[in-house]
Design a protein that fits this description.
Chain lengths: ~290, ~800
């Protein structure tokens, strides 16, 4: 039923739009897959040239071709590591971390080809292969990373049900307060079960529990078993229903912790392995030049 | 006690104190009457330890008592001592209930039944008013209080909060916040819903109710207050609950009623109006003077200066120049001609039509909030598409409007005395055209607040601006071919209509034939398809609608309703038809608009048949976004939760690019279809936060951002007024060690906002000032590259959007899964 303002600004609006960065696409498809294309091109060139270039007696890191790939690979590794700094150094300027991550992922994958072709498949038990293996470890953890980045945010969002972390904890604390009051009239063994449930520290969970979301020693679940359906008086019924509310609140928190853990755990390999990789790479480069 | 005082001063805020101190210094017989049992109740009620600001810094203080920026406690102590030292005659616990009489003999009645006689009265009662009392038996028992200073000081109590507004809800939440206090908190609401409170507060309350932290009693009101008990009137009869304390937050009565009861006239009907005053602060009731916040000067320094001035005037001092004289002289220094402040004030008042009715006092006040400038012929005053919400008036000379963006030589003149730039003021949108000086020009630029105050207080100015606005909006909307004569008939028959959020302006199937222009706010267009209302499009201010029915004589094909509280101008269809008949070119344009709009509608309709669920989803999402304030936004941060990994790098980046505090809470806020609207500024077209800022510190900047400048006094009004909860009050944190010293040596708290305890202890260690100020998103104005939250998102989940671009079918269909 209408028309929008005719004079709506072309030039300045475009500028404001650019400032806003409305282009709504994920890091994987950033700029119409620019970095996937770049990375594929690199891989293609490396693979084709690997078979075209004739190195005697066979491909290895010490040939001119090997040196070229080695230099490119080392450069890439250094640049990929800088993502950790870019992410935290919020300077002025037209950079976008999304673009960096996009390039990081695709160029990081290209390293499989660049690094491996650099070795000429001459692997063994030495510092050189250690560097390669660490590189592959970083890359594999990165692949895990993007797969959880792609899969889990939806579940994280759905599980949250618009609640913040603080609100979830607060909701649990509110149930606990009610439980404490409601448990007063209970008998000794039942109230012990409730106390045990309240005393258990929700956030003291092992890595395994966090990652799997299974808590076999959950005192709330155990306490709930002390109140079997059917034989309950009014006070016990109230406690039982509070306990099951507590349990479902706990599951929300635990699912939240699980998704967060799955989204983060790989960084505990990715980053330390990156540091180890840089050390190994340094050792590799120095030893190569030393024995030249 | 003398039979009759020379002057009675009512209210002991900064204004009243300063007046009384002056009277004491001059040896004038006086009495200072204060309602409460202490001086200066408004400041007494500030939060403990609040850092009180002394803005504007360029205004000199003229008073017999001291005031400088500092802690609330220190200021109150200083005043107490100085008032005693100066032998000011204070009478506490003396609420004035009525004033009668005339110059020379006023009778001032007090609540305790006493009457005071005075020759003149100075009213300095501020704007806080009186809290509404409970209206039930027992309403004067001591367990009732009307204010809650520190929710942390009550333990093991049954506390009932009465009132369903934000104040009541916030008090209840505060009392129930810490379980260790073991309070049993109940809140009573007379109605079934909490319509008067902010959505965010209601959500928190409902949350707390679900968790059992607060007992929320709806459709319940207090029936009787007893010692330790409260009788409730509920839907199912009376009920008695245990109650140790009642906090009544049922709003307050503004002092206007009392003031009018003394025979004093106000400048207008609406809430923003002030008493009419002469240059010596005298009201329409001669002998009674009004100063301070009640007179429209909401800062302590202004109040104190006026207290001094009013007594000097009463004492016969006619030479006294107002304290703002040097500030005005400074302002006018930039203008040509070497004229005095008074001369300039007269020029502005005489030459500018809408200012003619102002008193010299009002002129001065307006000038303080405005800017003056001189331009030479040909100089640009503002450029098309500049954001700007100020209004200009021409004091000398004339200007040219470049009506055709592609050809600057096509211009329309605006003459001396008239105004321009009013569209930005009214609609909150960018400047429609470039304006340049036709000859040497002197302009007055009224800030948004000054202009709104003027329009609210001077009805003739309001009418004039409204007419001009409508005419120019029509001309701008319908293109360059039309002239004022062409639209004169429409302008004459225009009627401005206010619409509530959600109210229909036109209804599908109706056969009314008016056409509308959105002056303020925004509309959504809906059509009922398969029994459900389907969102068709979003119309920002400056659009027109309803012409379809006029052009092809059809019934209304869709419903248009207000997305937020809006103002539309209604024109009769016949007048529009006649305009089209006279202007074939305009008819063509209108038809083209209509066709393109039809295309969108039929596109959505088609989709509805084949992809019904996708269209429903789109429609629901659009509604969700509008419910969350996108309808009044100019730029808003959204988070696509299918991409968000929860790393909070957006918050960290925000803190690190703004002195270490994040202006954004990613997790909080509503979500629909995985689109999340975090707690972050929407940069509203008509920002609620600007409404009531004593130092006028909230402004719109060059990129359209709404920001708070460094004259903020930390009063917290903006925080309370923002319906989206995006303003926080915090002291500026100490500087952190650099990123590299953190990376390499673990120095400092690392990237992002430092913990509260780190900020507090470090600031204490370094002896930094800890004044709490209001902070909010400034859209990273001045930072190259734009908003840090978006730049720092590793996955592309964070985007910033403008509603008119985002709320379209194509955009939502591709962005929502
Ligand atoms: C939270 C907050 C923070 C603020 N921070 C600052 C700041 O940092 N710097 C700044 O410059 N300004 C600040 N302001 C604004 C400033 O406090 C007010 O503008 C100022 O107090 C107004 O002074 P006043 O003398 O006009 O009235 P008030 O200070 O409101 O004083 C009015 C007095 O009159 C008494 N009274 C009312 N009715 C009657 C009656 N019928 N009979 C007898 N007595 C009566 C009241 O009890 C009160 O003591 C702040 C305001 C608020 C709400
Ligand atoms: C040798 C190669 C690589 C190196 C040295 C490397 C190094 C790094 C470093 C230092 C970070 C910063 C982590 C942080 O500070 O939070 C990072 C992040 C990341 N890397 Fe890699 N990486 C490599 C390969 C890859 C590959 C192949 C992938 C994907 C297939 C990948 C995916 C990611 C992702 C998704 C992130 C997280 C971005 C974020 O959340 O901010 N990386 N990497």
């Amino acid at each position: 039923m209408a028309s929008t303002p005719r004079d709506s600004s072309k030039v300045d609006f475009a500028f404001a739009e650019k400032r806003r960065d409305t282009d709504h696409e994920s890091f994987l498809s950033h700029a119409r897959m620019r970095w996937l294309k770049v990375s594929s091109a690199i891989c293609l060139i490396v693979i084709v040239s690997y078979f075209l270039v004739d190195v005697e007696p066979r491909h290895n890191g010490g040939s001119w071709y090997g040196y070229t790939l080695g230099t490119i690979g080392a450069g890439l590794i250094v640049w990929l590591s800088l993502l950790g700094i870019r992410k935290r150094n919020i300077t002025d300027g037209r950079w976008s971390l999304k673009a960096w991550t996009s390039a990081h992922v695709y160029l990081g994958l290209a390293l499989i080809v660049v690094g491996t072709m650099h070795t000429g498949f001459q692997l063994g038990w030495n510092v050189h292969t250690l560097a390669w293996a660490l590189m592959m470890l970083v890359i594999v953890s990165g692949i895990y990373g993007i797969s959880v980045y792609a899969a889990l945010p939806r579940s994280l969002s759905t599980n949250r049900r618009e609640m913040t972390r603080g609100q979830m904890i607060e909701a649990l604390a509110a149930i606990d307060r009610q439980l404490e009051a409601a448990a007063q009239p209970l008998g000794r063994s039942e109230s012990d079960a409730v106390i045990a449930a309240l005393d258990q520290d929700v956030f003291k969970a092992g890595l395994l529990a966090r990652l799997t979301g299974s808590y076999p020693r959950c005192a709330t679940a155990r306490a709930l078993r002390a109140f079997p359906e059917g034989s309950l008086n009014k006070a016990e019924q109230k406690v039982a229903s509070l306990l099951s509310r507590r349990k479902s609140q706990l599951s929300q928190i635990r699912r939240q912790m699980r998704y967060k853990a799955l989204l983060q755990v790989w960084l505990y390999i990715h980053i330390p392995a990156t540091i180890a990789l840089i050390a190994a790479l340094l050792a590799h480069v120095i030893s190569v030049f030393y024995y030249w | 006690m003398p039979d009759q005082y020379r002057v009675a001063i009512v209210g002991s805020g900064p204004a009243g104190l300063s007046a009384a101190a002056r009277a004491a210094a001059l040896g004038m017989s006086h009495i200072l009457l204060e309602k409460t049992d202490h001086l200066s109740d408004t400041i007494y009620k500030y939060q403990k330890g609040k850092h009180v600001m002394a803005t504007p810094s360029n205004l000199v203080l003229r008073s017999d008592i001291d005031f400088d920026a500092g802690k609330r406690e220190f200021i109150l102590d200083t005043w107490d001592t100085q008032i005693a030292d100066n032998k000011v005659n204070v009478r506490l616990n003396s609420e004035v209930t009525a004033i009668s009489g005339e110059t020379g003999s006023f009778q001032i009645e007090l609540k305790d039944g006493e009457t005071i006689q005075a020759e003149a009265v100075v009213m300095a009662i501020g704007t806080q008013g009186n809290p509404n009392k409970l209206r039930c038996p027992g309403a004067d028992l001591p367990l009732i209080q009307y204010q809650l200073d520190d929710p942390g000081e009550y333990f093991d109590e049954h506390i009932t909060v009465v009132g369903s507004g934000d104040a009541g809800i916030e008090n209840a939440l505060g009392l129930a916040a810490d379980p260790a206090q073991r309070n049993v908190v109940t809140i009573l609401n007379r109605r079934a819903d909490f319509a008067r409170a902010k959505a965010a507060n209601v959500a928190l309350l409902e949350e707390a109710e679900k968790d059992g932290r607060i007992s929320v009693r709806r459709e319940t009101s207090p029936a009787e207050v007893r010692e330790n008990e409260l009788v409730l009137e509920t839907r199912d009869g009376q009920e008695t609950i245990k109650c140790d304390r009642i906090i009544a937050r049922t709003g307050s009565q503004p002092p206007r009623g009392f003031v009018e009861g003394c025979g004093i006239e106000f400048t207008g009907e609406d809430r923003g109006a002030f008493p009419k005053l002469s240059p010596s602060f005298e009201t329409t009731q001669s002998g009674i003077h009004v100063i301070g916040a009640l007179a429209g000067y909401p800062l302590i320094k202004h109040c104190m200066n006026q207290g001094y001035d009013v007594i000097e005037f009463l004492n016969g001092n006619q030479e006294l120049k107002p304290a703002d004289e040097p500030i005005l002289a400074d302002k006018f220094a930039a203008l040509p001609g070497n004229r005095s402040v008074d001369e300039w004030l007269e020029i502005f008042r005489n030459n500018i039509t809408i200012l003619r009715e102002l008193s010299p006092l009002q002129m001065r006040e307006l000038m303080l909030d405005s800017d003056v400038a001189a331009f030479s012929a040909g100089e640009i005053i503002f450029v098309r598409n500049d954001p700007g919400s100020s209004m200009f008036a021409i004091a000398e000379g004339s200007v040219l409007v470049e009506v055709n963006p592609d050809d600057p030589s096509v211009t329309v003149p605006i003459e001396q005395g008239s105004i321009f730039g009013e569209v930005g003021l009214i609609s909150g949108r960018r400047r429609g055209s470039t304006i340049r000086a036709a000859e040497p020009v002197v302009t007055l630029e009224l800030t948004r607040n000054a202009a709104l105050k003027l329009l609210a207080t001077v009805p003739s100015a309001n009418r004039a601006v409204n007419q001009i606005t409508i005419e120019r909006q029509l001309l701008q909307m319908f293109g360059a071919g039309l002239t004022s004569q062409d639209v004169a008939e429409l302008v004459q028959s225009a009627e401005t209509v206010e619409v509530r959020a959600g109210q229909n302006v036109i209804e599908e199937g109706g056969d009314d034939k008016d056409i509308y222009v959105i002056q303020q706010g925004s509309m959504i267009v809906e059509k009922s398809l398969g029994g459900k209302p389907i969102f068709l499009s979003y119309l920002p201010a400056g659009s027109y609608f309803g012409e379809m029915a006029v052009i092809d004589h059809s019934k209304r094909t869709a419903t248009v309703k207000a997305a937020i509280k809006s103002e539309v101008v209604k024109f009769p269809g016949e007048a529009f038809t006649r305009l089209l008949d006279r202007n074939p070119k305009l008819r063509e344009r209108a038809k083209a608009d209509m066709a393109s709009r039809r295309k969108v509608n039929s596109f959505v309709e088609e989709r509805k048949e084949s992809f019904s669920s996708a269209v429903d989803m789109y429609s629901e999402t659009a509604k969700f976004l509008i419910d969350n304030g996108i309808g009044e936004a100019t730029d808003v941060l959204l988070i696509d939760e299918t991409l968000c990994v929860g790393c909070d790098n957006c918050e960290k980046a925000c803190a690190d690019s703004h002195e270490g505090l994040s202006r954004l809470d990613r997790e909080a806020g509503r979500t629909y279809a995985h689109i999340h609207v975090p707690t972050s500024c929407r940069h509203c077209e008509h920002p609620h936060c600007m409404a009531d800022c004593p130092p006028n510190a909230i402004k719109r900047g060059p990129d359209g951002e709404v920001f708070i400048d460094d004259t903020c006094i930390g009063c917290g009004n903006c925080q309370r007024n923002c319906p989206y909860g995006v303003i926080r009050m915090d002291p500026k944190p100490p500087k952190k060690p650099s990123l590299f010293s953190w990376l390499l040596f673990g120095a400092g708290p690392g990237p992002g906002e430092a913990s509260y305890s780190w900020r507090k202890t470090t600031a204490e260690k370094r002896g930094l000032e800890q004044a709490k100020l209001a902070i909010k998103c400034d859209m990273c104005a001045g930072i190259e590259g734009g908003p840090a939250c978006v730049r720092a998102c590793p996955t592309g989940a964070a985007i910033r959007v403008a509603p008119e671009k985002f709320l379209t079918f194509t955009k939502l269909a591709e962005d929502v899964d």
